[in-house]
């Protein structure tokens, strides 16, 4: 048995998915002897607490795909509400433009991390990757994480939600 063909257009599917708000992350990696790569990703989720696992996906058409297929480790930065400019920068432009003027620091695990006050960050071992549909799926085992009290940047209905959360 298999799934029935969709009874909707890809535009309708994208619009329906856009009703689900997500956090905004920048994922970075650096292969030995190569410049760092990074991109804005909103397809990030927790998978397991024991072991600590997270999941994200990357378009097969991404210029960064070859690095994430090969790298052993990467860092997922959960952006704060004030980091809209960082999200925009890492969503377009060349590799060099994305990192230009952005402070970096090396983690204890040897990875380059954005030296910014992100809401959280996760240093991950690239545990498993596989292709499904038009995306590369990546399962990361978290080796280190930190968080701050900063409010997260939210992506919803095709744009960034810059409205602070209310309690």
UniProtKB/TrEMBL annotation:
Alphabetized UniProt keyword annotations: Oxidoreductase
InterPro entries on file: Flavin_Rdtase-like_dom, NADH-dep_flavin_reductase, Split_barrel_FMN-bd
Keyword Oxidoreductase attached: yes
Residue stretches making up the Flavin reductase like domain: 17-162
Origin: domain of life: Bacteria
Pfam families: Flavin_Reduct
Gene3D superfamilies hit by this protein: Electron Transport, Fmn-binding Protein, Chain A
Protein biosynthesis keyword on record: no
Protein name, entry field: Flavin reductase
Biological source species: Orrella marina
């Amino acid at each position: 048995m298999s799934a029935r063909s969709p009874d909707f257009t890809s535009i309708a599917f994208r619009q329906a998915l856009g009703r689900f708000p997500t956090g905004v992350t920048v994922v970075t990696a650096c292969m030995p002897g190569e410049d760092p790569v990074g991109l804005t990703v909103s397809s990030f989720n927790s998978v397991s607490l024991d072991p600590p696992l997270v999941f994200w996906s990357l378009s097969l058409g991404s210029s960064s795909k070859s690095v994430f297929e090969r790298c052993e480790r990467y860092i997922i930065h959960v952006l704060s509400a004030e980091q809209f400019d960082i999200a925009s920068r890492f969503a377009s432009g060349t590799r060099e433009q994305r990192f230009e003027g952005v402070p970096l620091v090396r983690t204890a695990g040897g990875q380059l991390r954005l030296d910014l006050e992100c809401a959280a960050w996760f240093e991950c071992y690239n545990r498993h990757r596989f292709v499904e549909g038009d995306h590369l799926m990546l399962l990361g085992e978290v080796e280190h994480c930190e968080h701050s009290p900063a409010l997260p940047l939210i992506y919803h209905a095709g744009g960034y939600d810059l409205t602070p959360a209310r309690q």
